[in-house]
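Troubleshooting: if your tokenizer reports a length mismatch, compare against these two reference records.
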Amino acid sequence: MTADNNANSSSCPPILRGIHSALGPTLLNQILQSRILLVGSGGIGCELLKNLALSGFRNVEIIDLDTIDVSNLNRQFLFRSHHVGMPKCVVASEAALGMVPPLVTEDGKVAKYQPHHGNVCDNTKFNVPYISQFALVLNALDNVAARRRVNRLCLAASTPLVEAGTAGYLGQVTVIHKPSGTECYECQAKPTQKVYPICTIRSTPSQPVHCIVWAKELYKLCFGSKIEDSMLFEDEESLRADRESVEKEKEQEEAEGNEGNKTDNNEKSTNGDVAGGGEKSTYMDTVKELRSLLGIIIESSDKSSPPSANSDEGILRSKAQEALTALFATEIQKQIGMDRYKTADKVPVPISSEDIAK
């Protein structure tokens, strides 16, 4: 059965009938058959995936380096608390695939949303021949370097690019098509990026400037007047909500009768739990205790540790060493064990206790 026949048959999803009436059978057929590449599955990427799926696009590939952070949940609606720590592209592609209108095409092909958890700047995998396979590339990125990379790839492959992205609080979108002579992303000088996504700083720092920003946020966490002003601060309420969500997921899975589904879901739930579904970092309590010893009032909902300005120097030194060990050894070992850095160019090395003691 052809796309045209499907669009006019009673079995065709209503949403595709509307597209057929508005855009015509030729364009609908292109939508059903076109191969689309989406780079980025964060704030803009979630919206784009939803729109692609509900518009009938059935062959989409998604590239994203990031994993899901708690801070993403308030705006990236394809993610839930039990997904924290999982690759964004994997979770987003599964969610979007469930939105694709059911349709039996003439060739019998089913819809496919394929995730690639990796860096688009990896030339061994994401190069000009790879980009040439797609009818259209959509950018949904939050850093200038990756946007430049995709821009150059699309120009070299003469593949149309819809360039959308954010830089801090600013959003931009433009169409780039080399045969049409449109302006490319690098035709105009771009300002130096000064604001960085929280999830990048906390989970996947890849540039020296990310480490500088992390150090500034660590200073706020340890010595700032308001601990919650730091990107690294973990709110007790959010962690409690995550734990409750994970427990609820486990209860639902235990109640399921289908053993196969139960196994799959248990794996997902376990991944989310291990990756941080309600699990506090190894350093937060120690940092709060250090602030208390330093006499810094913690202006947050958690006031369990009263300030003590006249702490013994030996106790203070011991607590500072404990905090450094948690930050630069224990937490890094934990993140490595969770495969958080498996796509990074370099895996961080925990600092030894001997070096910290010095």
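Reference record two:
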Amino acid sequence: MFFPSLSKYLLFLLPLAMLGASTPIDSTGMNRGDGVYIHDESGQIVDYIPLDKINAREPQVNVTEPESDVSSLEKRLAFTVKCFSAKFDKGDKRIALSDLGDIMDRYGYVGKKSAFSVQYYTAIAYVCNYSTVSIACDRGTSGKVNAGLDAHCHDNVAARGDYKSGISYGRTEKGKPFCN
């Protein structure tokens, strides 16, 4: 689902989003409220789209039940899973992931050393590119990674899936660092 109200903002923000994020992002600076944050290579916020500029929506993330045998899932994972101690509301996570999916589907890639994040109440969903080249990203891959994170860590626990290519998909609690 794409939000037409975001298109004029995102077309302006795309060049800013590709500036990069090579250092951990301290989400305590994300105090402008819920919405989309664009980060530069030092982790600083270069732009922000407030939640009231995003139309009301329902979560668009495909939810899958974890497999009973997590070890078989681990063998199929193309990414490394990292679980953290922070927790958030899983409904907030679903909305944040949906909004992040809209951004990824709109652009189709994350610029070199850049990051997109979406804060929604208690949760932050993000995608980080640590590499020196642009990497394709999309809602489907994010959904698969998050299903793996849910199965490995739990559906309301901060976690990240790191690909060898340099891209990471994750989620964390509002106020916690990410892309680290």
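Descriptive notes for reference record two:
- Residues 1-22, 56-76 have pLDDT under 50 and may be disordered.
- The two ends are 29 Å apart (CA to CA).
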